[in-house]
Specification:
The chain is of the alpha+beta class. Strands 1-2 form a two-stranded antiparallel sheet. The longest helix has 18 residues.
């Protein structure tokens, strides 16, 4: 069963996650969250960076998709130059 606790929003928009919840979820300072809000519901979802294996899988999938689309390395370099020149 989920732990239940109450907390308050500070004048600076900060919310403290109660200690028992932090301990149960092993949350430490610096952990990042995505925040979803709808009507009167606010959801915090912990963001975790991908593992090396997950990252490797993402790279391979991107390379496969780029190859199928007919992209070349020079196309990527050109796109980067174009975006950088727009600043």
């Amino acid at each position: 069963m989920a732990n239940v606790a109450t907390t308050k929003l500070s004048s600076r928009g900060q919310v403290v996650i109660p200690e028992n919840i932090r301990k149960k979820l092993k949350l430490e300072a610096g952990v990042q969250f995505v925040v979803l809000g709808d009507n009167d519901v606010v959801i915090l979802k912990k963001i975790s960076p991908p593992t090396i294996d997950e990252f490797d899988t993402l790279i391979k999938e991107a390379q496969k998709t780029a190859k199928q689309a007919g992209l070349k390395k020079s196309d990527i370099e050109l796109a980067i130059k174009k975006v950088r020149s727009q600043k």
